[in-house]
Description:
By secondary structure, this protein is α+β, with helices and mostly antiparallel strands. The protein has one helix and seven strands; from the N terminus they run αβββββββ. It is rod-shaped and about 95 Å long.
Amino acid sequence: MENRGRLEKKVGVILGVFLAFLFCFFVSVPVHAQVTGATLSGTVTDASGAVVAGAQISVKNNATGTSRDATADSSGFYTLPNLTPGDYEVRISAKGTRRRPATTAQLLAEGRRNSDDRPSNRVCATN
């Protein structure tokens, strides 16, 4: 009789642990990381619409003076993630093109701005 009591107690503990595990498993909610920065991305093309591979993109935060650089890939695409929200001076240069004045981009927290830029005939779009 004493063995039966111990067995029932062990089964009760095991069942309790199992039920606690199931509760935690089904009640848990996935948590996503918070994004506090902004992303500037785009495609650099020339006046004829051809992509400019290897173009140099430089952004400078007007408030802090910090800058970040990127290089356009073979399809002219570039991305600068995790930028501090604020106003930026954007410069794009490429071999064989004349230097253009800097443009200004305002980036918001958790924002994404697409700036398709042509070194000689600038066109910007925001999405």
